[in-house]
Amino acid sequence: MVLALLNKTNQTKLSEISGVNQVTLASIKNGKASGISEKVWSRLVRAYERNIVPLPEKAKTAEPPKLIESIDGIVAKLEELKKQIKPLEELRALLVKMN
């Protein structure tokens, strides 16, 4: 039962829920505990019976940072500005020739 609890959730969460020290839980999980005190046992049984131990959440896929999207937007704006500047440069060259 104890191993089922430890396999179902992480030690930190189980420690928060049951009030059992994380080091104690690690010793039990790794088979290094020589025994389990009545106090620890009762807390773990209570957490198990209430079924309040949540399953670990699946890792969420990371979304691309918005900075990359904004950089793409800036590049597109620069390209648009370059198109607007070309006729102005030609006009400037004509005006320079006239003077």
Quick structural gist:
With 99 residues, the protein is mainly α. The protein has helices at 2-8, 11-18, 22-29, 38-50, 66-98.
Question: What does this molecule look like?
Answer:
The protein has five helices and no strands. It has helices spanning 2-8, 11-18, 22-29, 38-50, 66-98. The longest helix has 33 residues, at 66-98. It is rod-shaped and about 100 Å long. It starts with a helix and ends with a helix.
Number of helices: 5
Instruction: Note the main sheet.
Output: none
Helicity range:
55-70%
Radius of gyration: 32 Å
Distance between the termini: 94 Å
Unreliable stretches, pLDDT < 50, 5 or more residues?
A: none
Structural class: mainly alpha
Question: How is the secondary structure organized here?
Answer:
Blueprint (H helix, E strand, L loop, with lengths): L1 H7 L2 H8 L3 H8 L8 H13 L15 H33 L1
Q: What labels describe this entry?
A:
single chain, 99 residues, mainly alpha, 5 helices
